[in-house]
Amino acid sequence: MKIDIIGDIHGCYDEVKSLIEKLGYQEKNGVPEHPDGRKLGFVGDLTDRGPASLEVIRLVWKLVIQQQNAFYVPGNHCDKLYRYFKGNKVKLIHGLETTAAEYMALSAEEKDNIRSQFMELYEASPLYHVLDDRKLVIAHAGIREDYIGRHGSKVKTFVLYGDITGGTNPDGTPVRREWAKHYRGNALIVYGHTPVKEARELNNTFNIDTGAVFGNRLTALRYPERELVSVPSSMPFIPEKFRRM
After folding, report:
1. For residue 37, what are the CA distances in angstroms to 14, 40, 41, 49, 63?
2. 100 by DSSP, 3-state: which?
3. Are 54 and 85 in contact (CB under 8 A)?
4. Residue 58: partners with Cβ closer than 8 Å, 6 or more residues away
């Protein structure tokens, strides 16, 4: 299996298009294809905060649902957008307000289309992907070794939010334990969720969320080569958004 796994996009459509092109994909019939048969993967958080969340949804829906030629797992922002589209009461904060504004500017027909596409994408996708004979796992915020193959509320919370303690930081974000420091599994875990200035490899895990929406870079990990490929962000740089490791 040869797969190029892209970190948290957060509505940075121009950056993901540039990164896919840099990875060697060529557009055919409106979707990117690789001449060597490589496939794309996405660690979730497609939307929110960035300028073109709905375009990112359309692209990933085409790849995963229409072409059945890519892998996607939902992130916590994806989960919240799904609940918003279902009509649940969710607060339009932490970036969802930007996606909601894009959505509300559409015609009724366009709203139905993008809502249907995203809900289909979310509902058809697993909480995490176990690939290549269990040698690779894609999970939005990571996953503990003993959770691989399991489901349930504890696993979902971990995969979407990380190893949270229940406490909050001064900025309102949840306090998270460094689960990767204790990981000893054989499967390579590729994840995002926590922005870092440089992609982080630790104990057979890769954090590839390099904060595209916060002005740094959008990064992909080429598997099985373990090669990192990035493009610069066009967004303003916000240094306080990056986790110190």
Report:
1. 23, 10, 13, 32, 13
2. helix
3. no
4. 114, 117
Tell me how many degrees the CA angle 137-52-83 measures, rounded to the nearest 5.
60
Q: Are 231 and 215 within 8 A, CB to CB?
A: no
Q: Using H for helix, E for strand and C for coil, what is the string for 60-72?
A: HHHHHHHCCCEEE
Q: Whole-angstrom Cα distance, residue 116 to residue 169?
A: 36
Q: Could you read off the pLDDT tens digit of each residue along the chain, which spans 245 residues?
A: 999 999 999 999 999 999 999 999 999 988 999 999 999 999 999 999 999 999 999 999 999 999 999 999 999 999 999 999 999 999 999 999 999 999 999 999 999 999 999 999 999 999 999 999 999 999 999 999 999 999 999 999 999 999 887 777 776 677 778 899 999 999 999 999 999 999 999 999 999 999 999 999 999 999 999 999 999 999 999 999 997 76
Give CA–CA dist 73/3, Å, rounded: 14
The answer to whether residues 189 and 221 touch, using CB atoms and an 8 Å cutoff, is no
Prediction pTM value: 0.95
Report the largest interatomic distance among the alpha carbons of the chain, rounded to a whole angstrom: 50
